[in-house]
Write a structure and sequence with these properties.
Elements: H1 3-16, H2 21-28, H3 32-40, H4 61-71, H5 82-93, H6 99-116, E1 135-146, E2 149-160, E3 166-171, H7 176-190, E4 197-200, E5 207-210, E6 217-219, H8 221-230, E7 233-236, H9 241-244, H10 248-261, E8 267-268, H11 271-285, H12 297-305, E9 320-322, E10 331-334, E11 337-340, E12 351-354, E13 358-363, E14 366-372, E15 380-381, H13 388-393, H14 402-410, H15 415-428, H16 430-441, H17 449-461, H18 467-480, H19 508-515
Parallel strand pairs: 1-4, 1-8, 4-7, 11-15
Antiparallel strand pairs: 1-2, 2-3, 5-6, 9-12, 10-11, 12-13, 13-14
Helix pairs in contact: 1-3, 2-3, 4-6, 5-6, 15-16, 15-17, 16-18, 17-18
């Protein structure tokens, strides 16, 4: 029991049962002095803090105080640390004072000496936030179990200062693409743009250089174009801890969200799945009250949402566009990582759109490859399908290829493929057997993966490795499931222009016809010409 509970029970028993001081002391196993104290006051007296003496430091306290007073006039980076004070006491006075004793004394005396010297007190001012005006942005580290691998990711947080409404997004990096995509996602969820300032620390994706002793910043060109496109004003905080206090709302929000919704370490198959879960967490947050506020976050945001600026009509392209050339290994190099493309594009100039989570590769107007973005320096991503045409001419290169190894790890090259390859090599030899396997792998381009696997197993069951048999059995499996046996890309219907939003384009010929007067002449009669259709058949002579 706590001391307060003992006091309560002693007073209750004394009032109800009329027990004496001695009987109460015997019942609760305490001294009679404590019983008398409980009967005189319902709350125990606060415990007096012990006065701890430091006999080894006492002779030198005045000297240490003098050094701390001198630090008030010294440059900030040349003031005494505890370690330096210990060293000076040993060198100049021969004193052997424990580090921990001196550390506790300096931490107590340094602020007291500053106040005695008239230094301004450190305090904070409550900021007035207008609805729909200001917001704060920050990144935070978070560990995620992605597909069985614990990976370090980054949590983007965009917080409206008035309501506390926050939008979060997890990405593999905190680079400029993730920074811009986080903004696009947050502004689309909020349904508008803050009319005032959006506060940032000096993030590398936004700030190229901090002007010395100034609030001015040299911004990244893409970032400058981005906030000009959306029409909000960025405000950059001071570097270091002082700047963190200027956007304390989002600093605390990142830690709060990480502790309450990302603990324990979340597990997901992909970041898209994890980010969809965050949306449910944000809906739960709408019912929370911050501090002593009367209204919830969602109620305040309902009032604030109507005061936000509307979003621009056109979305900003957040991906970084690069133009590498496809090398002889059918790969393009993007940010020190390499990605494969179909071999027929070797030597072509590609156009790569680098996003935070994926890399999209185009040649001309056609998309030729799409890969998840790699984050490690020198990593490679190869797709076995991209090299099948070369492997038909060089079948010996398949067994030791990196593309085959990655296909096995990804599960695209299954045990059924391995069994077909082994049987083909046993019947046809290594070269022809590998070619037979490649011809089967080509079926994946126009048939569903699961149907091809069924076709391989059916062909092996009858002792055949011919790709024609595999294709026939795969089509049978698709038809038995009620699906189309051929996988084709979806055809996009041409979108007709909206008459209310886009102007109609009229050809010059149609414009001239529209300006001609109406033709009131009767239609021509063609009855006289019908006799040409009735030609007399000549009788054979």
């Amino acid at each position: 029991m706590t001391k307060e509970e003992i006091f309560l029970r002693i007073r209750r028993d004394s009032w109800r049962e009329g027990l004496s001081v001695r009987a109460l002391a015997r019942k609760y196993g305490v001294h009679r002095r404590l019983v008398r104290e409980a009967l005189s006051s319902p709350t125990p007296k606060p415990r007096r803090p012990p006065v701890r003496r430091s006999p080894r430091l006492d002779p030198y306290k005045k000297t240490v105080d003098d050094w701390l007073r001198a630090d008030l006039e010294a440059p900030k980076k040349q003031r005494h640390t505890v370690k330096r004070i210990v060293a000076r006491l040993q060198q100049e006075l021969g004193a052997d004072v424990p580090y921990t004793t001196l550390r506790d004394y300096v931490s107590l005396r340094r602020p007291q000496i500053a106040v005695e010297a008239g230094a301004p007190a450190e305090g904070f001012i409550v900021r007035h936030n207008r609805p729909g005006a200001d917001a704060e942005v920050d990144f935070g580290d978070v560990w995620v179990n992605l597909n069985g691998t614990v990976t370090k990711c980054y949590l983007f947080a965009f917080r409206l200062a008035y309501s506390g409404k926050s939008v979060h997004r997890i990405s593999m990096s905190c680079g400029q693409q993730a920074f811009l995509e986080g903004h696009v996602h947050a502004l689309s969820v909020l349904g508008g743009v803050p009319t005032g300032q959006v506060r940032y620390d000096n993030l590398t994706p936004a700030v190229s250089r901090v002007i010395f002793r100034s609030r001015s910043r040299e911004e990244s060109p893409r970032w400058a174009s981005f906030h000009a496109h959306y029409g909000f004003i960025p405000f950059y905080c001071e570097p270091g801890l002082r700047g963190a206090h200027e956007k304390g709302g989002v600093e605390g929000q990142v830690g709060y969200f990480r502790r309450n919704y990302l603990t324990p370490v979340p597990a997901a198959e992909s970041l898209d799945e994890l980010n969809s879960r965050l949306q449910e967490c944000e809906r739960i947050e709408d019912g929370r009250r911050i501090g002593l506020r009367i209204r919830t976050i969602g109620q305040d945001f309902t009032h604030e949402a109507a005061l936000l600026m509307p979003l621009p009509d056109e979305a900003f392209e957040t991906g970084l566009v690069l133009t590498p050339r496809v090398d002889r290994y059918a790969m393009v190099t993007v940010k020190m990582c390499r990605y494969s493309v179909p071999v027929r594009f070797i030597g072509h100039q590609a156009r790569v759109v680098l996003q935070s989570a994926e890399v999209v590769i185009h040649v001309g107007r056609s998309e030729i490859a799409r890969h998840p973005r790699l984050t490690g320096r020198g990593e490679e991503r190869l797709v076995l399908d991209h090299y099948l045409e070369v492997l038909l001419r060089k079948p010996g290169a398949l067994a030791g290829s990196e593309a085959l190894d990655q296909a096995r790890i990804a599960g695209a090259f299954t045990a059924a493929h391995e069994a077909l390859w082994a049987k083909a090599k046993a019947e046809l030899g290594d070269t022809e057997g590998t070619k037979a396997l490649v011809e089967v792998l080509l079926l994946h381009r126009h048939l569903d993966h699961a149907d091809v696997i069924v076709g391989i197993r059916a062909a092996l069951s009858v002792g055949s490795v011919a790709h024609d048999i595999v294709a026939l059995e795969a089509r049978k499996a698709a038809e038995a499931s009620g699906r189309s046996p051929t996988v084709t890309a979806p055809v996009q219907e041409p979108r007709l222009p909206d008459e209310a939003s886009e102007p109609q384009v009229t050809s010059l010929t149609m414009r001239r016809v529209a300006q001609l007067p109406g033709d009131s002449r009767p239609l021509p009669a063609l009855d006289a010409w019908d006799q040409l259709l009735r030609v007399a058949r000549k009788e054979p002579s």
